[in-house]
Amino acid sequence: MTNTLYEISADFLAALDAMEVDPDTGELLNADQLDALSAAFDEKAEATALYIKNLTAFVGNVKAEEAALAERRKTAEKRVERLKDLLASSMLSVGRDKVETARTKIGFRKSTQVQIDDEGALPPDFVMTTVTTKPDKTAIKKAIQAGQAVAGAVLVENQNLQIK
């Protein structure tokens, strides 16, 4: 006898095609083979259906775990930002711009950022047109660094915490 559901199905169809009927009594002559294949088919179909149910439950559990992990990741990311802010604030309040130990090196890296005070006042040369308009901060930064006054924008120096 065959093992797979596909093979059982093929054997079942072949048995149906080969079914013989006694011309005198109208009795099915190979009904035992059909019954055996039908029972085997039912067992395999049930086993397959139960496996599908288990996989469906597994998929649901994985989706729930993905959502839980995404929430945990967001919480951890927010905690990292709060702790970085706390560390930076504490270092600045005691006048330290770097701390170095055997296991870590903490310091500030200076960067400049264009701060747009009035987007509507920016000259057209410094506005990139996309689906929506937004200031071209790169061009504004270059212009201000070159000594050009850009209405509606100033350079602001930030201190970004680095942990290596």
From TrEMBL:
Pfam family, one: Sipho_Gp157
Protein name: Siphovirus Gp157 family protein
